[in-house]
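USER:
I wish I could look at a protein chain and see how it folds. I am handing you a single protein, as its sequence and its fold in token form. As I understand it, each token names a local backbone shape. I hope you can help me see how the letters and the tokens relate. The protein I mean follows directly.
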Amino acid sequence: MTTHALYRRPTPWPFRLLGWLFVAAALLTVAALLAVGGTGAYYELTRTKAGDIEAMIEEDLPRVATTDQVLRFLDSHAIEHGAVQPSTAADRRLLEAGVPTGTMTISGIVRNDGYALQLRDVVVWFILDEEGLLEGHLVYEVGR
């Protein structure tokens, strides 16, 4: 019984080149996916969240604060904010929280910048009573 060695001719160069191009495209795709995933994870770890703002309010603002104390709090934490103004019917989240239209409020926003597929900002509303004292607050996140 005799054995024959199977001879295989080398693959022609155009097919070898095509194989290497396929491998290179696959590696670039994996690298791009890792980069997007990495920037998204970094953004989630470093962005300001609603819980962070809640903790700052609990720590730095007295329960019964004056309007000036609320404005100083916002300025000291570099939170973009507006003036004291009455709430309107367009403030849907306030209405959902049971705050009547016309209640004096101060609104603020923390804009999170970064490299993510969806950026999320934190909105804070300070609800004031008739005397201008802090009655409560509402903090939530919104997508851009």
In short: The first helix runs from residue 13 to 46.
